[in-house]
Amino acid sequence: MQFKHPELLWGLLLLLIPILVHLLRLRRFRDTPFTNVRILKKILVEANRSSRLKKWLLLLARLGLIAALVLAFCQPFLSSQTVGKPKDILVYLDNSFSMQVQEGNSSLLQNTVQDLLQFLPEDLRFTLMTQSRTYREVEVRDIQQELLDLGFDPGSTDPAEVQLRADAYFASRDSAERELWLLSDFIGWDREAWASWNNARVRAVRATAGNPVNISLDTAFFGNKNPETLELLVSLSYEGPWQNTPVSLYDGQRLVAKTTAEIQDDGAVLARFLIPAGEGLNGIVQINDNGLPYDNVLYLSHNPPEKIRVLGIGPSPSPYLARIFSPAEFAYAESDLRTLDYGLINRQHLVVLNELEAVPEPLARALQEFSAQGGVLLVIPAADARIESYNTLLAPLGAGLQPRVEGDNPITGIVFDHPRFQGVFEKQVENFEYPRAGLYFPLEGTLPAMLKFQDGQAFLSGIDGLYVCAAPLGDASGNFRFSPLIVPTLYSIGRGSLPGSDLYYQVGKEASLDLDLTLEEDNIVEMRGAEYSFIPLQQSFSRKTRLIFGDEPRLAGNYLIEYQGGPIRQASFNYPRTESLGRDTPAGLPDRFEIYPDVERLVAQYQNSMAITSLWKWFVILALLFVLVETFLQKLMR
For domain 214-302, is the CATH number 2.40.360? Predict the structure, then answer.
């Protein structure tokens, strides 16, 4: 029991007054009995005993009356141990895309916001944390309009990030009592992520919708290609019973085609479109369903391929390189050392150092500068290569050649996980006709292998701006030049020297796009969308400009890349689809979470834990009872 005015307990000293009065009244004169009053003496003794009992009972009643009145004025009450201690309440409101699902006539987010506005006490101070914003130390009336205007955030609900933000908030506070209220559908939450978290008491409300049904446009990619047409495949996923849904393809505002997605034998759902190969596409793929709205649109862009400039430097022409780097996609040129124009090097995207006996020092410096400026270099040594001159070129770039090794060595390993082989092979081929090298120069450095010899040594290594082959390709002792592997390998290196834009990029995920553009001084590249424009991070090289995406853009859509007021090409961005599925298998939550069916019961339980039971009325009633007891003793007892 606690007291609102404990200082009034000094009033209990008043109990001394009836005690002193009682003690004083106990003083009586002693009577001496006579023989002729023996019967009277017996009557007086009995009367004295009854009076003494009455006095003790009156004393107890008066002591109880005074004590009850004093305690009533102290206003005693009962409460939990946490009442009166500093308390911090952090409310996390999930406004990710998964909260768009409809429950009744409103979304889960709108229903949760209405519950907060309706059931949170007006005088309750708390901190509200959404996906992207935090409102510190507010009352519900302070942020009523912000809650009503709250939109959906493209980021997925990452429980680890929520935990880090909650840790950071509570670390800045010195409150004794901490509570975290989680209001979410908990799609994609990891039970183990919170299993050991004990920074606050956790109350959770799971927002749910009955019978979830949703169809999502997941991704798009090219299938079969030919010089005239490209097959555009759009992958869909669904939750609930499958419904035949029309899929529409727009080029800007113009409807290009409409088809119906089909379930494949392997369970995948695909929609197919044919588009012209040599034309650009400002694409929007769209469906209509009653599930989540955000995944009903997929933006994509197809730009006509730019020709990649390739320069081959060797002692003689190489017809096999000219066939691989065909005029349809590449601008291929060759030169020998005697007629080489060094000024051409910096204007290329890819330089192939093709079986030179030695690399002159001026050429080595020019190629090192070329590589530093973002160019891609492919080094193929000659059979009689002077490795000292080659290492003069390669050592500053982190690679090198060892002395020549002769002997037949088959090339048996393809590193399918290498970035240059991504999407090149339909499946991982293990049994094929292995090409061979009759001599090779073991490679030094840390470049990842693309192709390997049978003994595990690298035949071709490289990444990004440098690729080094361990053996000559035109030497009679080897046959790699005639192997089917040479075309996809060198072609992928060529295409990677100026990667074209992807069909689309993901909002919030780091990515880059290389433009065949040299920035002039004080000029920048801008990106303009229908509702939103931004200036991306950009890195300028001597022959290209690299755009870097991550924090920007924040909105999905098709964007026009502009330079000096004119359009260059297009790029598309889509929100991640991680919020689309998983509602039929909700994530498990740690057992220590206090789960409530709705916000109303969470708030009611919180208020009950903070409730104070006043006892002063009961002490007033007790005082009245003592008055009645005293009156009864005075009237009825002699």
Answer: no
